[in-house]
Design brief:
- By secondary structure, this protein is mainly α.
- It folds into two domains: 77 residues; 248 residues, no CATH class.
- The chain is built from twelve helices and no strands.
Length: 352
């Protein structure tokens, strides 16, 4: 009888453990699926409107273009469209494979891993605005002071006055360099970006009231850096619990109750807002984010900085980084609900 009872207890324990493992696999896979699907959506947006691929939705509804713009046969062009369709189907499969390989990791460790991905994105964005801002400001300065032609020649000077040329041959290489630096650097550098905003504004004051000199590019640089500081720092602020909470009850909740509040808040408010920004802004060529990027839209001041289209792209970077960080946040609180001890948030003020 004792042996039978022991076997029954072990069987029930294994069944319970198996059910827990399935729930963990489901929750983790769900979070990683959203990460993969978001990345795939952004990549397909580039393929649709810059590389001129047919698009997943057009392929499914049978409205794919002919493919003549790429010089491809109809069959091969349709194959590119189905490749885009299958990329979305692959998102949950890749997520499950990824989660299975990390099955020994705790929710807190997975949360930190996903948060590192968001940090890499906004590090690249920080270096992008720093490098592009300095380079475009220098080009605008030389152009205004008629120094471009003596240095680069008349043809290059004329081309640098065209937004698409400056975007392709000045901005884009610096953006790629920013991605390389982000992969090799540590820290997010928002304190330095804030300092640069103050320094740029201070120079405007000095040049205007002391030297009676002011140009459009000077104000453009301040707005360019300030917009980046405001939008890119949001994901990092979420990571360190720096966003202001207006509540009278949350601080008195138990850890599990706080986690339920955060899970519902992220699922019902945070993620839908960010997905709305991405989908409405990047749905087609005329959308609010895609249209300025495709046309390389610049401000009306002819001798200002040519970065207005990049500032529109800040919204996409903001939504993308916030989605990744929200999912990190979600994994963290899933862990608390699954019995893990919540890890304290440590704000590293020396290396933000």
């Amino acid at each position: 009888m004792l042996v039978v009872l022991t076997m029954q207890h072990l069987s029930s324990s294994l069944n319970s453990s198996g059910a827990l493992l399935k729930q963990d696999l489901l929750l983790r896979s769900l979070a990683f699926t959203v990460v993969y699907a978001t990345v795939i959506f952004v990549l397909n947006n580039f393929l649709n409107f810059w590389a001129l691929w047919p698009g997943a939705i057009n392929t499914l509804v049978g409205k794919s273009p002919t493919g003549s713009s790429l010089g491809l046969s109809a069959g091969l062009f349709a194959g590119l469209g189905w490749l885009q369709v299958f990329s979305y189907v692959a998102a949950p499969i890749l997520a499950m494979i990824h989660v299975s390989k990390l099955s020994t990791q705790s929710y807190q460790n997975l949360s930190e891993r996903v948060s590192d991905w968001a940090a890499t994105v906004i590090k690249a964005a920080f270096w992008m605005v720093l490098l592009v801002g300095m380079a475009d400001m220098l080009v605008s300065l030389l152009r205004i002071e008629s120094l471009l032609a003596p240095i680069f020649g008349g043809d290059i000077t004329t081309e640098l006055g065209k937004p698409k040329f400056r975007g392709a041959y000045v901005h884009l290489p610096l953006m790629l360099l920013a991605c390389v630096i982000a992969l090799r650097s540590k820290g997010l550098g928002f304190i330095w970006l804030a300092l640069l905003v103050v320094a740029a504004e201070f120079l405007i004051v000095i040049s205007r009231f002391v030297f009676s000199y002011e140009q459009a590019y000077m104000g453009d640089l301040v707005r360019f850096w300030y917009a980046a500081l405001f939008l890119f720092a949001s994901a990092h602020t979420l990571l360190v619990e720096g966003h202001i909470r207006v509540d009278v009850a949350y601080t008195h909740f138990k850890d599990r109750t706080k986690s339920w509040v955060n899970v519902f808040g992220v699922s019902l408010l945070g993620l839908p807002l960010c997905f709305t920004i991405l989908t409405l802004g990047m749905w087609d060529k005329t959308s609010s984010i895609n249209s300025p990027l495709l046309s390389v839209e610049v401000s009306q001041s002819g001798y200002g900085m040519y970065v207005k289209y990049i500032m529109v792209g800040f919204l996409a970077i903001f939504a993308f980084s916030m989605i990744i960080q929200f999912l990190s946040y979600l994994l963290k609180h899933f862990g608390v609900l699954r019995g893990e001890t919540p890890t304290p948030t440590i704000i590293n003020t020396a290396n933000p």
